[in-house]
Amino acid sequence: MAVYRTLRGEGADSFVEKKSRFLGAAVPVHSVEEAQAVVARFKKRYWDARHNVSAYVLRGGQQHCSDDGEPQGTAGVPVLNVLLKSGVTDAAVVVTRYFGGVLLGAGGLVRAYTHAASLALRAAGIVEMRPCLRLRLSCTYSQYGRVAALLPAVGAVVDGEDFTDIVSISCRLAPEKLDALKAGLADATGGTVAPQICGEDSFAVEIEPGSS
Predict the structure, then answer these.
(1) Which of 73, 119, 137, 146 has the greatest count of CB atoms below 10 A from its CB?
(2) How many domains does the chain have?
(3) Are residues 23 and 105 in the same domain?
(4) What is the pTM of this model?
(5) Containing H/E element for 97?
(6) Is residue 212 in a domain?
(7) Rounded Cα distance, 126 and 209, in Å
(8) Edge-to-edge, what's the strand order for the sheet holding 51-57?
């Protein structure tokens, strides 16, 4: 499972440039059909706007952009470039423009659409999805305190605990930290507790805007 960046959720922001209002929205998507549906949704919502410029990038490598009536290369490409530069995938961005009567020129349009797309990504939030293992381990009540302290110390995230005649713990852990967990558990429990791998998953790590 590869590391990749995507959106934390849906987000939107806006600004005014020379009387034109630009509304940027970023939405997580997982297919071309979902991306097209997002574009259609915003075109319907802002039916009275002059332009609804869009771009999307998917993990499978598909990417697309549309100027939606703006001069060629001044709108859709800048929005797409923001996505590509950020490294975000499985994401669609729609920038709606309500024309204010003042022409911005080619350079002004590129700057405005770039800024709107950047605001949309910031509002949605960017996360890095990293691979992890889903683990389960069982211990006695007398061992629980030591085990519970060890898990966060090695970077494990506890998802659930079940207290019956023993304590069963479900957690997630980066694959490269599995050996450290095994060694820590062996030391803490005299080798009587070991993690069982239940599967693979991924977890999200917040990325600061502008970080590479």
Answers:
(1) 119
(2) 2
(3) yes
(4) 0.77
(5) strand 91-98
(6) no
(7) 7
(8) 11-17, 20-28, 91-98, 51-57, 63-66
- Contact yes or no for 135/34 (Cβ under 8 A): no
Mind listing the pLDDT tens digit for each residue in 40-85? 999 999 999 999 999 999 999 999 999 999 999 999 999 999 999 9
Sign of torsion, CA 94 98 103 108? Answer: negative
Last residue of a domain, one of 124, 143, 174: 124
Sign of CA dihedral 69, 97, 18, 7: negative
Q: The CATH number of the domain where 78 resides is what?
A: 3.30.230.30
Are both 92 and 163 inside the same structural domain?
A: no
185, 150 in Cβ contact below 8 A? yes
Q: What is the C-alpha to C-alpha distance for residues 74 and 104, in angstroms, rounded to an integer?
A: 11
Q: How far apart are CA 63 and CA 61, in angstroms?
A: 6
Q: Is residue 90 part of a domain?
A: yes
Q: Which two tokens stand for residue 44?
A: 């319907």
| 11-23 tens-digit pLDDT | 999 999 999 999 9
Residues in the chain: 212
Instruction: Read off the CATH number of the domain in which 148 is found.
Output: 3.30.70.240
- Backbone Cα Rg of the chain: 23
- Closest to 95 in 3D by CA, of 80, 117, 67, 68: 117
Q: How far is 80 from 62, CA to CA, in rounded Å? A: 12
Domain that holds residue 152: 131-207
Identify the residue whose tokens are 């304590």.
167
